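Batch job 17 of 40 flagged for manual review because the log was empty.
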Amino acid sequence: MVKDRMEEMGLTFMSAGLETFLSEKVRSDEILSTTIMNLLDLEYIPRKERMAKTRLKVSGIPQLKRVEEFDISWIKGGLTQKKLNELESLAFIARKENVIFMGPSGLGKTHLMLALGHKACFNGYTAYYSTGMNIVEALMRAKGLSKLQRKLSWLKKPHVLLLDEVGYENLNPEQATLFFQLINARYEYGSIICTTNKPFSKWGEVMSDDAIATATLDRLLHHSHVISLSGDSYRMKDRIKTGIVDPS
């Protein structure tokens, strides 16, 4: 009767585990509130995991990366363990702050971004991933269909927007204006994590217009954590360790 009622209410995980739960002898030593909480966890935990997996799938994050897999000892500057722990807490998302990982290729910028995005999805936040150029092209298509505002509104929704490889390709004036509109739409509304190989002094060249670059950086850098990484190529570390590449 109890299982039937649970199933009618959609509590399928709780119903499936009820008999095993009630048969455990430890229940006789628990106070009632603890027993109720443990019973609710039969439903809550798998639902939470299922929702997290859905958020991860919808995010478009292309690879599974974890913060604990990042070898911070390989980095020669720009990121301390204390700062990494602070970012991993995801407090910056709650505060609607941005994170910019800057530096040459191969230092693990994308790894860190994807790892934080993955952790966000498993901690109740929504995320969306795109390369900088792909999202600009999507905005161009939306503008051509007179749906730009709808697209910008949609891109405001995720708690954190992951923009990879910003600055790897220069933008023309129209593209630069659309990129500014995206950053402006999310300004103080939701977090952005981006990776770039260009110092901010070069963004005028990237965006083909110093004024647009300045306006974009003004919004992107306000309430932000700028992590300027330095060191040898992170991708080469395993080859160096095994002797395939001479570190000298």
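Reviewer: the log was empty due to a logging misconfiguration, but the result itself is present. DSSP finds twelve helices and five strands in the chain. Unflagging and moving on to job 18.
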